[in-house]
Write a structure and sequence with these properties.
There is one protein chain. This protein is an alpha+beta fold and 246 residues long. The chain has two domains: 157 residues, Jelly Rolls, CATH 2.60.120.10; 72 residues, Arc Repressor Mutant, subunit A, CATH 1.10.10.10. It is built from nine helices and twelve strands. The N terminus and C terminus are likely disordered. Keywords: DNA-binding, Transcription, Transcription regulation.
Length: 246
């Protein structure tokens, strides 16, 4: 069991892993050699963050890499006119700020916890130094970064090519996967920001998905009712990995 020490409301909680204990379902970490994982868990900081917590900001060089263990983190990119849209949704199959370890540059996105999350935070310089000494580790990190870039490009094209109902269906599928079927808590205002559309359009689209029997939607939350119908409506651009066995 994890010993959870809560801080003041609105702050993160630190999760202390007992000596000799095992923790980790992040698939990027699981691909690393066992001895490297052990070092990262020893040197890293396992923490719980609340929904809405800023993970990294665009234009700044991240000082850490954040491996998501549970929950989902939304990454948004902005335009000169002040508009923004989500370009990536990361769960236990990815990491935030990985470019800071691999490329040593500023972040091009702003990442925010879309749900309560458990995250293993590792100092970027430490991870970079370790990867330079272990080519196999560097190769794994490069492969993950390439996957993230591919997702970003695919979703950017998706915003231009596909109807909102298709994009909304894909977003709900991804969130449902990362939350393992739990209720997705999101307001219409949050969805309008993530998908870069008017709030009224979000409301109309959710009603459309409800009418198809694909979801249930109430004020502040929604849930998948029929996954097959939702997948049929979705354009398929979202990366929804196969769910881990419990």
């Amino acid at each position: 069991m994890l010993d959870v020490t809560m801080l003041r409301p609105g702050q993160e909680a630190l999760l202390h892993v007992p000596s000799g204990g095992a923790f980790g379902r992040n698939t990027v970490l699981l691909r690393l050699p066992a001895d490297v994982r052990a070092v990262l868990h020893e040197l890293g900081r396992l923490r719980r963050v609340e929904k809405g917590t800023a993970i990294c900001a665009a234009g700044f060089r991240p000082q850490a890499v954040h491996f998501i263990e549970s929950g989902a983190v939304s990454s948004s990119a902005g335009c000169p006119d002040g508009g923004a849209a989500e370009v990536a949704l990361t769960g236990y199959d990815g990491a935030v700020g990985l470019g800071s370890a691999v490329l040593d540059g500023a972040s091009s996105v702003t990442a925010t916890a879309q749900t309560e999350c458990e995250i293993l935070t590792v100092d970027a310089k430490t991870l970079r130094s370790l990867s330079l000494r272990r080519p196999a580790v560097l190769g794994i990190l490069h492969a993950e970064l390439s996957r993230e870039v591919e997702q970003l490009v695919r979703l950017s094209v998706c915003h231009c090519r596909h109807r909102l109902v298709q994009r909304m269906a894909g977003w709900i599928l991804a969130m449902d996967h990362y939350l393992e079927g739990a209720v997705v808590r999101a307001t219409h205002a949050e969805l309008s920001h993530l998908l870069s559309v008017r709030r009224a359009t979000v409301t109309e689209t959710l009603h459309m998905l409800e009418g198809e029997g694909a979801i249930r939607s109430r004020r502040g939350w929604l849930a998948v009712r029929d996954e097959e119908k939702l997948r049929a409506i979705s354009c398929g651009c979202r990366h929804v990995p196969q769910r881990l066995e419990s």
